[in-house]
C-alpha cells in the first residue's frame, strides 16, 4: 500500500525493525504522540529502533567520522522510507548504572551557574583575591582540596583493614588484601626467600616484620624457589641453585593503593576498596574544596553547603535574593547586576525541576543514586530550558517512578516543549498520559511474533472502536476497574521501629504478613528508603544472609547513606527467606541469557547428554554449554560473534564466520534432540519451546511460568544485554515462581509495573497473588493505582517529598485509604475501585 506524504506528518513506509511487520504509518509533528501496546509488541522498535535511529543516522551522515565515534550509534533501521522526520533527541531510561560519575548539579548545569555566582557576587573575606569560577569546582586543580584531592574523603589501608584475621598464617592468606592466585603465591614465596616464616600465625610475627610486609615502599627483586619450605630455600640459596624465577615484591598497602588508583577493572577496584578505610577529609570536612574557596559565602552559605540543600530551598533562597539584591547592594551596582542575571536564570531552571517533582534532590546528589525515572526527568528539565525548537523528543515511559500527583506536572512540561515548536514521541503505559495524548499509535495485538502490527494510529477517541486492541479496553471499556476483595487482616505483623535513614526520622511501620501490601507516596517521599533500603537490610541482617553483591562499579561508602537507625521488634519468626525482585540487569554479558538464568538450560543440556548419539560419543551435559571449551566454537569462544575494529568508526560486532553465530563447534551441533541441535533450541521462543518440550516436566514447568508472566515472546537464547529492566524483573520473578510452595518467604518488589502495559500488570498481579495464597508475604513499592486497588493493604508515605515527607499519612485497606482526607493518593485511587 503506497501512502501519500502529508505535510505536517512523519511518514513511515515498510518498517521491519525486530518484530515490526513491514508497517506503514503517519504521525503528526508538533504533537504529543503516545505509543502504546503490551510489553514486547514493538513500541520501542518503532519509536527508538526506527524513528530515532533514522533521525540519528541522517544526522551522523552530516558529521565527520571522528565526531561520529563519539556517539553511541544505533544500528541502521530496517525501514524502506521515512520522510518529514525532524532531528531527534532521545531521552531513554538508562537501565543499570550510568558509567560516568556525575551529579544533579553537573547534569543540570546548575553547578556552573552557582560557581559563577560565587566567583563574581560572593562575599569574600576582607582582602581576599577574587577566585575564578573554576576555583569553586572540586574537579579542577584550582578548586580541589589539596588534602583529599577533591574527593571529600581520604582513603587509607591499615593493618586491621588488610589483615582481617590475624590468627591465620601468611600461607593461609592472612594478608587478605594481596592478590589471589599466582601473584599472591609469588609474594609468599618471595617472603620465604627473604627469611620470613610463612607458616606462623600473623599475630605471632614481630610487629616490625609485619609493618615491613604491609607498609614498605621497597620493592626488592629476589630469587624465588617456587613452593620450597623455608629450610629448603635456605639450602638452595647456599648452594647458589638456579631459582624458578626472579620475583619482585610489593608491600600490601602499596599494592592496594596502586590497584585502586590505576586498575581499569571495576572488580579489581572493588576488591581493593574492600581493604581500605575511608574517613571524611579533616581539611574540608567532605566539602571537597580548598579552604580559600570555602571562605567565600553567598546568602551566608559556602558553595558546599548550598549544594547540599534541597533544590526547593535553593529556589526559595534565590527568589528571596532577587527581591533583595537591587535594594541591598546599592554600594556595588555591578555585583547587584550579576546577582540579578544569574539568580534569574537559576530560578527559571530550578522552577522546571520543581515542576517535574525533583525539588527534594540536592545539587551534590550523585546520579548513580537516582532512579532511572528521576534521571530521565532531570534530563527532560534541561531540555525544557534549552530553547531548542523543531526537534522531536523521543521518550521512554517518562511517568516511571511518578505518583499520579506528579504526572500532572510532567504533562505540563511536555506541553511546554510542544508549545515551543517541538514534537513528542512517547512510549507510555500510564492511562492518564494516554488520555492526554493528541495522537495514539497502538502496536500489537500481542508480543513478539504475534505483535508488530499497527492496530491504530489516530486521535485517541478513535481507538475505542478497535477490536483487537488491548489498550482500548482499558481506556474506554472499563477493563481498568479493579475488583479485589482484600484478604482479611492478618494477626501477624512485621514491626519496624525507629527507622532513621535519608528523610525518615524515627519512623515506626508495620507490615502485615501473608498479605499483599503496596507502599505508595509521591516521588521522593521515602518509600524506597523504607522498603528497599531499611526493611531489606534489617530483614537480611536478621536472617543472617548477605544480599547478593552488587555488580556495579565500586563507590566505596560514598553513596551509601551513612546512618541506618532502627530495628525489627516483631514478626521475624514468620519470615524464613527474603527475595528481592528488582529491575537490575540479570547479567552484563551476552553469556548470560534467559535459559541460563532461569536454570532451565541445565535441564535441556541433560536431555541432550542423554540422547543415544551423545552417549555413544561420551558427551556429557557440559559439552552442550557455550561457556565451556569442550563444546563451544573455538574461533569466537562461544560468543557467536567477533569484534571488528574499524579505523574511524566504532568497533562493530559481526557474526562469527566459523560457527555463523551458533556458538557451538560442528561436532556438538551434530547431536540432535527431537530433530533440533542445541543451537536451534536457543533460537526458540518460550512459546514455541513450551510446545516442543511437552512431556519433559522440569523444562515444561519453567516455560509455563515464563509464559504466565508474559514473556512467551522472548527467545531462550536472548542475551541478558538485550533485555529491558522490566523483562529482567519478570525473569527473576518467574525463576522464583518455579520454586514456590514453601511459604514464609518475604518478596519485595520496587515498582514492578515499570515498562508494563495494564494488561501485563494484570498478569503480574495474578502471579503475585499466587505467592500470597501460598502463604508468602508480598510488599511492593508502587504508584500504579490499579496495583494499589488490587492490594490487601496500603501504606501511604508523605505528605510531600524529601523534608516534607517521611511520615505515614494513611494506611489500611484500599477502601479505607481512598477515604483518607490527608492522602494525596486517595482521590486517584478512588477512580479505580469499583
Ligand atoms: P515494546 O517496546 O513494545 O515492549 P520492543 O520493541 O522492545 O517491544 O520489542 C519487540 C520485539 O522485538 C520483541 O519480540 C523483542 O524481544 C524484540 N527485540 C527487542 N530488542 C531486540 C534486539 N536488540 N534484538 C533482537 N530482538 C529484539
Ligand atoms: P521514594 O522512593 O518515595 O521516591 P526515596 O526513599 O528514594 O523516595 O527518597 C526519600 C528522600 O531521601 C529524598 O529526599 C531523597 O533525595 C533522599 N535519598 C534517597 N536515596 C538517597 C541516597 N542514596 N543518598 C542521599 N539521599 C537519598
Ligand atoms: Zn578535603
Ligand atoms: Zn564462533
From TrEMBL:
Belongs to the ABC transporter superfamily. UvrA family. The keyword NAD does not apply. InterPro entries: ABC_transporter-like_ATP-bd, ABC_transporter-like_CS, Cyt_c-like_dom, P-loop_NTPase, UvrA, UvrA_DNA-bd. Residues 482-830 form the ABC transporter domain. It comes from Chitinophaga dinghuensis. It holds the Pfam family UvrA_DNA-bind. Keywords: ATP-binding, Cytoplasm, DNA damage, DNA excision, DNA repair, DNA-binding, Excision nuclease, Heme, Iron, Metal-binding, Nucleotide-binding, Repeat, Zinc, Zinc-finger. One of its GO terms (molecular function) is heme binding. Residues 547-567 are annotated as: Disordered. This is UvrABC system protein A.
Amino acid at each position: 500500500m503506497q501512502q501519500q506524504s502529508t505535510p505536517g506528518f512523519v511518514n513511515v513506509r515498510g518498517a521491519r525493525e525486530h518484530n515490526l511487520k513491514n508497517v506503514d504509518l503517519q504521525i503528526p509533528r508538533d504533537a504529543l504522540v503516545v505509543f502504546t501496546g503490551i510489553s514486547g509488541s514493538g513500541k520501542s522498535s518503532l519509536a527508538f529502533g526506527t524513528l530515532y535511529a533514522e533521525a540519528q543516522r541522517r544526522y551522523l551522515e552530516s558529521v565527520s567520522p571522528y565526531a561520529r565515534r563519539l556517539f553511541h550509534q544505533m544500528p541502521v533501521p530496517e525501514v524502506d522510507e521515512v520522510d518529514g522526520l525532524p532531528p531527534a533527541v532521545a531521552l531513554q531510561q538508562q537501565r543499570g548504572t550510568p558509567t560516568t560519575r556525575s551529579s544533579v548539579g553537573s547534569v543540570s548545569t546548575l553547578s556552573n551557574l552557582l560557581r559563577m555566582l560565587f566567583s563574581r557576587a560572593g562575599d569574600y573575606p576582607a582582602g581576599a583575591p577574587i577566585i575564578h569560577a573554576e576555583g569553586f569546582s572540586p574537579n579542577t586543580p584550582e578548586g580541589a582540596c589539596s588534602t583529599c584531592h577533591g574527593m571529600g574523603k581520604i582513603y587509607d589501608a591499615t593493618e586491621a583493614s588488610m589483615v582481617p584475621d590475624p590468627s591465620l598464617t601468611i600461607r593461609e592468606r592472612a594478608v587478605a588484601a594481596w592478590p589471589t592466585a599466582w601473584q599472591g603465591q609469588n609474594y609468599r614465596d618471595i617472603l620465604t626467600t627473604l627469611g620470613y616464616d610463612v607458616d606462623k600465625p600473623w599475630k605471632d610475627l614481630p610487629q616490625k616484620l609485619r609493618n615491613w610486609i604491609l607498609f614498605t615502599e621497597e620493592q626488592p627483586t629476589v630469587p624465588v624457589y617456587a613452593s620450597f619450605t623455608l629450610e629448603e630455600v635456605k639450602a638452595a640459596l647456599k648452594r647458589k641453585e638456579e631459582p624458578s624465577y626472579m620475583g619482585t615484591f610489593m608491600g600490601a598497602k602499596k599494592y592496594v593503593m596502586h590497584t585502586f588508583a590505576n586498575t581499569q577493572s571495576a572488580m579489581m577496584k572493588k576488591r581493593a576498596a574492600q581493604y581500605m578505610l575511608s574517613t571524611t577529609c579533616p581539611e574540608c570536612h567532605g566539602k571537597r574544596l580548598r579552604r580559600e574557596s570555602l571562605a567565600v559565602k553567598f546568602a551566608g552559605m559556602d558553595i558546599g553547603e548550598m549544594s547540599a540543600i534541597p533544590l526547593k530551598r535553593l529556589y526559595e533562597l534565590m527568589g528571596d535574593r532577587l527581591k533583595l539584591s537591587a535594594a541591598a547592594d546599592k554600594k556595588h551596582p555591578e555585583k547587584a547586576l550579576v546577582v540579578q542575571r544569574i539568580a534569574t536564570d537559576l530560578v527559571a531552571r530550578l522552577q522546571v525541576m520543581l515542576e517535574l517533582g525533583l525539588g527534594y534532590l540536592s545539587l551534590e546528589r550523585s546520579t548513580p543514586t537516582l532512579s532511572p525515572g528521576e534521571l530521565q526527568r532531570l534530563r527532560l528539565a534541561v531540555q525544557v530550558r534549552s530553547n531548542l525548537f523543531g526537534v522531536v523528543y523521543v521518550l521512554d515511559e517518562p511517568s516511571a517512578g511518578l505518583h499520579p500527583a506528579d504526572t500532572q506536572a510532567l504533562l505540563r512540561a511536555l506541553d511546554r516543549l510542544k508549545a515551543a515548536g517541538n514534537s513528542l514521541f512517547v512510549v507510555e503505559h500510564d492511562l492518564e498520559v494516554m488520555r492526554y495524548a493528541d495522537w495514539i499509535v497502538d502496536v500489537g495485538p500481542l508480543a513478539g511474533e504475534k505483535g508488530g502490527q499497527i492496530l491504530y494510529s489516530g486521535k485517541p477517541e478513535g481507538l475505542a472502536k478497535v477490536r483487537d486492541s488491548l489498550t482500548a479496553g482499558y481506556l474506554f471499556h472499563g477493563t481498568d476497574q479493579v475488583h479485589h476483595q482484600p484478604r482479611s487482616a492478618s494477626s501477624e505483623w512485621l514491626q519496624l521501629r525507629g527507622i532513621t535513614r535519608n528523610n525518615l526520622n524515627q519512623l515506626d511501620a508495620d507490615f502485615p504478613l501473608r498479605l499483599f501490601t503496596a507502599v505508595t507516596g509521591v516521588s521522593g517521599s521515602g518509600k524506597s528508603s523504607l522498603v528497599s533500603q531499611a526493611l531489606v537490610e534489617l530483614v537480611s541482617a536478621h536472617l543472617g544472609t548477605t544480599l547478593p553483591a552488587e555488580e556495579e562499579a565500586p563507590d566505596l561508602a560514598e553513596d551509601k547513606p551513612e546512618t541506618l537507625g532502627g530495628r525489627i521488634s516483631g514478626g521475624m519468626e514468620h519470615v524464613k527467606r527474603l527475595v528481592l525482585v528488582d529491575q537490575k540487569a540479570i547479567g552484563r554479558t551476552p553469556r548470560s541469557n534467559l535459559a541460563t538464568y532461569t536454570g532451565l538450560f541445565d535441564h535441556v543440556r541433560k536431555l541432550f547428554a542423554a540422547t543415544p548419539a551423545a552417549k555413544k560419543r561420551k558427551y556429557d551435559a557440559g559439552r552442550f554449554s557455550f561457556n565451556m571449551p569442550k563444546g563451544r566454537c573455538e574461533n569466537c569462544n562461544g560468543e557467536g560473534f567477533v569484534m571488528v575494529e574499524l579505523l574511524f568508526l566504532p568497533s562493530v560486532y559481526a557474526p562469527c564466520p566459523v560457527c555463523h553465530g551458533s556458538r557451538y563447534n560442528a561436532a556438538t551441533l551434530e547431536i540432535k534432540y527431537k530433530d533440533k541441535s542445541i543451537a536451534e533450541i536457543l533460537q526458540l521462543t518460550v512459546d514455541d519451546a513450551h510446545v516442543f518440550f511437552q512431556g519433559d516436566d522440569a523444562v515444561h514447568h519453567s516455560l509455563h511460568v515464563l509464559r504466565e508472566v508474559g514473556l512467551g515472546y522472548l527467545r531462550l537464547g536472548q542475551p541478558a544485554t538485550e533485555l529491558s529492566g522490566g523483562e529482567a524483573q519478570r525473569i527473576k520473578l518467574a525463576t522464583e515462581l518455579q520454586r514456590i510452595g514453601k511459604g514464609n518467604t518475604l518478596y519485595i518488589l520496587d515498582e514492578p509495573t515499570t515498562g508494563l502495559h495494564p494488561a501485563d500488570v494484570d498478569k503480574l498481579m495474578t502471579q503475585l497473588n499466587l505467592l500470597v495464597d501460598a502463604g508468602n508475604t508480598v510488599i511492593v513499592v508502587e504508584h500504579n493505582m490499579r496495583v494499589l486497588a488490587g492490594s490487601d493493604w496500603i501504606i501511604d508515605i508523605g505528605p510531600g517529598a524529601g523534608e516534607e515527607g517521611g511520615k505515614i499519612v494513611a494506611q489500611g485497606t484500599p477502601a479505607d485509604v481512598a477515604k483518607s482526607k490527608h492522602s494525596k493518593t486517595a482521590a486517584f485511587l478512588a477512580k479505580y475501585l469499583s
